[in-house]
Design a protein that fits this description.
The chain is α+β, with helices and mostly antiparallel strands. It has nine helices and twelve strands. The structure holds pyridoxal-5'-phosphate (PLP).
C-alpha cells in the first residue's frame, strides 16, 4: 500500500500528457465494492475500445479489495461509512509500451442533499448525433476514458447557468447522459433510460436500479427520449456510483416534481447493496 500524496506518476505517462487511458469509480458500501463485476466488465470494454491491453480482472479485483481493506482498517466502512475506489489503466510512459495501472480509494463526501432535495439540471448539446458510436467509433463514445476535461467544463457551464448538473443531448435532439451519470425517468410504474446504442456509458447504477425496480414489479426499458419526453415524465433522476440517485428538481430553470419516496427507496437499496 502506498501513500497517495507521495509522487508516483512519471511526467511522461500518457495519462498525464494525453488523458490516454481508462478508469472506473466504484462505490463502496458496508466495506464491499458495489456492482464490482459490472465495473470490471466495463473497464475491460473501455480498454478494448482504446486498444489497451486487456486488464486482468483477478488482479484488479484483488487490488480493489486490498485498498478497501486498508481504508477499513478502523472498521469505519464496516460500520456504514461510504467510500469509493478508482481504478486507472493508462497507455503508460510514452515510448515504453507498457501500461500503467493503479487503484486509489478514499471516503466519500456527503451527498444527502443531492439524494433528497435533488439537483437542477441544464440540457447541453454534446455536438454529436445520437448514432455517433456507429458512425464514428474512433471518437470513443461510450468508453470511460481519462479525457474528462469536457465533462468538467460542462459542470462549470451548469454553475454559470445557476444549475447543479448537466444532461447531454445529441445534436439531433436525443437525450444522452450526464457528464458523470445516467438518466432514468419514471412514468407510472415504468422506468426508462436512454439506450446503450447512443454512445453513452453502460451505467452500473442504472442497471442495479432496474433490477431493484423489476423486483418490485415495475417495468423497465431503454428508449430514445426527447427533452419533451423528460418534461412529460412523472419523475427523473441522474444516477451514478458514489452520489447514487439524485432526483432532478429543475430542468433548464423550470421546476420539476421530485419523487421523494422512490428516491429514498432507490438510495436505501443502493446503500444496502453488498456486491
Ligand atoms: N455516464 C458517464 C459519462 C459517467 O462518467 C458515469 C459515471 O461516472 C455514468 C454515466 C454513471 O455510471 P455508473 O452508474 O456506473 O457510476
Amino acid at each position: 500500500m502506498q501513500d497517495p500524496s507521495a509522487p508516483h506518476l512519471n511526467v511522461l505517462d500518457l495519462a498525464a500528457t494525453r488523458g490516454d487511458g481508462v478508469f472506473e469509480t466504484i462505490s463502496v458500501g458496508g466495506a464491499a465494492p458495489q456492482a464490482l463485476e459490472h465495473h470490471l466488465r466495463r473497464f475491460a470494454a473501455s480498454a478494448a475500445m482504446l486498444d489497451l491491453p486487456a486488464p486482468d480482472s483477478a488482479t484488479w479485483r484483488q487490488a480493489i479489495r486490498m485498498v478497501i481493506a486498508h481504508l477499513d482498517s478502523t472498521s469505519a466502512l464496516t460500520n456504514g461509512a461510504e467510500a469509493w475506489v478508482k481504478t486507472v489503466l493508462t497507455r503508460g510512459i510514452e515510448g515504453d509500451g507498457r501500461p500503467t495501472g493503479w487503484v486509489y480509494g478514499t471516503l466519500s463526501g456527503d451527498f444527502s442533499s443531492e439524494r433528497t432535495t435533488g439537483i437542477r439540471v441544464v440540457t447541453l448539446d454534446r455536438g454529436f448525433r445520437h448514432d455517433v458510436a456507429a458512425t464514428s467509433p474512433w471518437l470513443l463514445a461510450g468508453a470511460k476514458t481519462l479525457s474528462y476535461a469536457v465533462n468538467r467544463a460542462v459542470a462549470r457551464e451548469a454553475t454559470r447557468r445557476d444549475a447543479d448538473d448537466v444532461l447531454f443531448v445529441s445534436s439531433d435532439g436525443i437525450l444522452l447522459e450526464g457528464p458523470t451519470s445516467t438518466l432514468i425517468t419514471r412514468t407510472g410504474d415504468r422506468l426508462c433510460t436512454p439506450g446503450p446504442d447512443l454512445g453513452i456509458l453502460d451505467g452500473t447504477t442504472q442497471a442495479s436500479i432496474f433490477r431493484f425496480a423489476e423486483s418490485r414489479g415495475m417495468s423497465t426499458l431503454s428508449a430514445h427520449l426527447s427533452v419533451d419526453d423528460l418534461a412529460a415524465s412523472d419523475a427523473a433522476w441522474l444516477v451514478s456510483s458514489v452520489r447514487l440517485a439524485a432526483p432532478i428538481r429543475a430542468i433548464d430553470g423550470i421546476p420539476f416534481a421530485v419523487d421523494t419516496d422512490f428516491s429514498a427507496a432507490m438510495n436505501a437499496f443502493l446503500l444496502a447493496q453488498r456486491e
